[in-house]
């Protein structure tokens, strides 16, 4: 259950090696989250991510630190999702599930290889849809919880440079909005996060970019505010509102210089 200040005490990160997922976990551990599950394909990278979180010693917790566990999860195998994620929820309530996995793909390559394009779509949409429904259903059964889904501003309007990836995020956006409506009144919050380009460090040139830490901070703030949709950086909300309504020829002329990936 959440603590007296509304901070999640248990967290499930789907995409256990995700930079954004781990940054969010670190922030919540600093606020005394006690249990973290990292879900992903078994690998040395997943084990290292878990070890890095176990090494944290936030004030107020015992010397044993944070209980960090891993669970095998494959976005491309939806048939396994109910069993894999069911193991997590069977161990106790999950306050927050963060869906942080995804595939960016390679637009030029994927246009020439339809099966590669399908893999991007299956990861970003089909896999995310399946995992989200499993988590939302389990949270509804426990009577509380928050599901945070990482989408992208690329899903708001197709662009030549990444329309395969963008189309998968557009589908995910529509699904998540509908799931949010479906969960209304159940005690389950569903929040969509739409970052622009995510970079290793802050872009001082003023482009519409964000670091993983900035996205994690926006997620934490959005949870406290019970936001339905979060843009990172926040000004992207207004930029995308304008770009959505540009005539096609004008949009094509400006998109590469304006729209973040």
Automatic annotation (TrEMBL):
Molecular function, one GO term: oxidoreductase activity
Keyword field: Oxidoreductase
InterPro entries cross-referenced by the UniProt entry: NAD(P)-bd_dom_sf, Sc_DH/Rdtase_CS, SDR_fam
Pfam families: adh_short
Gene3D superfamilies named in the record: NAD(P)-binding Rossmann-like Domain (3.40.50.720)
Superkingdom of the source species: Bacteria
UniProt family annotation: Belongs to the short-chain dehydrogenases/reductases (SDR) family.
PANTHER family named in the record: 5-KETO-D-GLUCONATE 5-REDUCTASE, DECAPRENYLPHOSPHORYL-2-KETO-BETA-D-ERYTHRO-PENTOSE REDUCTASE
The protein, known as: SDR family NAD(P)-dependent oxidoreductase
Source organism (scientific name): Streptomyces montanisoli
């Amino acid at each position: 259950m959440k603590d007296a200040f509304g901070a999640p005490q248990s967290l499930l990160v789907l995409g256990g090696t995700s930079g954004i997922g781990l940054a969010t976990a670190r922030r919540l551990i600093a606020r005394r989250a006690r249990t973290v599950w990292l879900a992903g394909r078994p690998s040395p990278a997943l084990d290292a991510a878990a070890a890095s979180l176990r090494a944290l010693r936030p004030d107020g917790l015992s010397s044993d630190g944070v209980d960090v566990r891993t669970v095998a999860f494959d976005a491309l195998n939806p048939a396994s999702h109910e069993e894999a994620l069911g193991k997590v929820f069977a161990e106790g309530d999950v306050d927050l599930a963060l869906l942080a996995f995804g595939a960016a793909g390679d637009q030029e390559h994927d246009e020439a290889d339809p099966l590669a394009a399908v893999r991007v779509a299956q990861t970003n949409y089909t896999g995310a849809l399946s995992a989200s429904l499993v988590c939302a259903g389990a949270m509804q059964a426990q009577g509380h919880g928050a599901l945070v889904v990482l989408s992208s501003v690329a899903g708001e309007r197709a662009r030549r440079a990444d329309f395969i990836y963008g189309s998968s995020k557009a589908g995910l956006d529509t699904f998540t909005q509908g799931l949010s409506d479906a969960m209304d009144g159940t005690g389950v919050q569903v929040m969509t996060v739409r970052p622009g380009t995510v970079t290793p460090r802050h872009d001082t040139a003023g482009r519409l970019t964000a670091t993983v830490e900035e996205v994690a901070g926006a997620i934490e703030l959005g949870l406290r505010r019970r936001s339905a949709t979060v843009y990172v950086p926040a000004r992207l909300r207004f930029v995308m509102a304008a770009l959505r309504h540009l005539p096609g020829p004008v949009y094509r002329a400006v998109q590469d210089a304006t729209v973040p990936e």
